[in-house]
Amino acid sequence: MEIQIGEGPDVEALMHTEEVFEPSEEFKAQANFGDPAVYDRAEADPEAWWAEWAHKLDWAQPWDKVLEWDAPWAKWFVGGKINVSHNCLDRHVAAGNGDRVAYYWVGEDGARRTITYSDLLSTTERFANVLKNLGVQPGETVGIYLPMIPEAPAAMLACARIGAVHNVVFGGFSAEAVRERMETSHAKVLITADATLRRGEPLPMKQSLDEALDALPDMRHVVVVDRTGGKVETPMREGRDVWWHEQMLAADADCPAEPFDAEHPLFILYTSGSTAKPKGIQHTSGGFLTGVSATHNAVFDIKPERDVYWCAADIGWVTGHSYIVYGPLANGCTSVLYEGAPDYPHQGRWWEIIQEYGVTILYTAPTAIRTFIKWGRDIPDGYDLSTLRLLGSVGEPINPRAWLWYRDVIGGGRCPVVDTWWQTETGMIMITPLPGITATKPGSATRPFPGVSAEVVTHDGEIVEQGGGFLTLRRPWPAMARTLYLDPDRFVETYWSRFGREVYDVGDAARVDEDGYFWVLGRTDDVINVSGHRLSTMEVESSLVSHEGVAEAAVIGQNDEQTGQAITAFVTLEGGWEPSAELIAELREHVAEKIGKLARPKRIIWADDLPKTRSGKIMRRLLRDIADGRELGDVTTLRDPAVVGMIGERVKAGED
Fold first, then answer.
1. Lowest CB count within 10 Å: 66, 121, 210, 543, which one?
2. In this predicted structure, which of 9-13, 164-168, 184-188, 329-333 has the lowest mean pLDDT?
């Protein structure tokens, strides 16, 4: 069977579409959006739909025009002025909700803080004055390299308050990654911490950066948060390095929010590209806040007086920007902010937090869900998850078996699952069920959010009514990236050239089924060329994890004299399954049945775990290096650096 992007096995055979879940009548009755007509209303007049959401925010000056579209350049709410920080904080306090909890913070070491909207506003205002005292001007870039501590959202909101552009770097990245992102964004100030905690041990942050910071001539000041209470040695360079707490004591308490143009840059966030050079995705203020507040409200059926919401991601990724900070705070929501790993100090840590704070909505990545499945098929006794009423999944596509486990075990069979698709570049959720409206299919992100236009197309750009191809977006949306920082030509070439300047090339393969539901299969550049046939790595991985004995799988291509490339699969088994030659043969045939003989892995390597970032993203590039015997370089960004050593030993020993 020949498989190309846009061809391949039937959706039903691969994705088990016979399983359909309708929203319960009880959920429909309580949902914010119980009327399917919202889809038609948004489609009839998309600009009016987005304007309706924008009107829910406070504007210092109303806009003259909702959208100005000169493909591929968009401007939203033209002429309007807004302050993002005001919309996330001041207006809630002014409305009498200052005592509402903004964040329940749980530190990895067990520390806990309850932060109200008044508390967060006070911290944000004072730190905004710290930035002003350090000479930060509107439009200048401020770097943020922090653990998952409350100072991180406060720093972001302080930047937004004074019009500075924040550039957050994931706290697990290396010093060189920080240096590169600060240098290319011309950051004037960096906010970091003395240390971050990893499995109970403090790891220096500021000290590890010193050599890299010395190479940054534009860096005027480094603000250091004392996370460990002085337990980690932190050299401070006079004239450049200052302590957060000392600067806060010296700063004024009041800092009025300044209105800025709707198109004023809010943040830059660097993401991986097909080259070694990261892409600086640039988002703006009015459109981004409209998009994330709208989707957060509708997708999670938010009622602030009722819900405790937990997006179990990291602020260093776009998920944290959109759905830990700006979306929830704009909607006046109470959130959980958690610093540690899912399994420290024990594997029940998440369930403990859900029970303690009465979490009603859990939004996490498929990688975390698969990890929980690997630990055991059931939640350990003693944990009460009955407060949960809605589950969400974000990131790479979730496989149907994991989806069902998530719904049945974590959600007790009563919680709808919103399986969402979106990107750093889109800024907001783009394809998703709407709770109370959309019937769900395990593994499908279902339909575009109202007002969003998505299509699957062929190589030639022809729309595919049913079948596979390339996922595209056909209409501007408010939270869309405006450009790549200082690289507009690369922005056009990367996203707006393949299918024309009015069509956004997502870079993902997808299928659309007979009901118009979307199944996102993974990156189109993550393909393996076997004997001239291009196979999607995600498709092969999905077929592997559909086997009852496989908890997780990652697939790479390796050079092969006979076929050009051959498939190598790293496989983590479910509890109770043991590696064997017989199981390897069974898995190879399982893939052949699901996809075709060409898709059978030539090599299967058993892995107790896979190399992942602290956010749960599998690092397939490291797996390629391990399989090819190359030097791995810096692995400190991994959640568990020891994993690569264990896999490497198995590869060397030939333990397939």
1. 210
2. 9-13
3-state helix, strand, coil in the chain (%, to 5): 30, 25, 45
Closest by Cα among 467, 468, 432, 425 to 451: 432
pLDDT higher than threshold 60 for residue 9: no
Instruction: Find where tokens 């949960």 sit.
Output: 388
Specify the CATH architecture of the domain 11-81+267-522: 3-Layer(aba) Sandwich (3.40)
Return residue ranges of the chain for CATH 3.40.50.12780.
11-81+267-522
| pTM of this structure | 0.85
**DSSP secondary structure of 271-306:** E--SSSSPEEEEEEHHHHHHHHHHHHHHHTT--TTT
The DSSP secondary-structure symbol of 226 reads -
Which positions ≥6 away from 551 have C-beta within 8 Å? 370, 373, 374, 545, 572, 573, 574
- The two three-digit tokens of residue 258, written as one number: 């300044």
Q: Could you check whether the bond before residue 345 is cis, i.e. omega within 30 degrees of 0?
A: yes
* Span 51-66, pLDDT tens digits: 999 999 999 999 999 9
Which tens digit of pLDDT belongs to each residue from 421-432? 999 999 999 999
Instruction: For the domain made up of 526-653, give the CATH fold.
Output: GMP Synthetase; Chain A, domain 3 (3.30.300)
CA dist 489 → 56, 279, 302, 485 (Å):
35, 12, 39, 10
Please write down the HEC assignment for all residues of 420-473: CECCCCCCCCCECCCCCCCCECCCCCECECCCCCEEEECCCCCECCCEEEEEEE
pLDDT band, residue 94 (cuts 50/70/90) = very high
Say what angle helices 151-162 and 117-133 make with each other, to 10 degrees: 60
Query: CA–CA separation, 316 vs 547, rounded Å?
Result: 34
Cβ contact 464:456 at 8 Å? yes
CA nearest neighbour of 522 among 363, 366, 639, 405: 366
What integer best gives the mean pLDDT of the chain? 90
Of 53-57, 149-153, 610-614, the one with minimum mean pLDDT is: 610-614
Angle (CA) 653-655-656 rounded to 5° is 140
Architecture of domain 116-258: 3-Layer(aba) Sandwich (3.40)
Residue 172's pLDDT is 80
Instruction: Kindly state the average pLDDT of the residues 7-33.
Output: 66
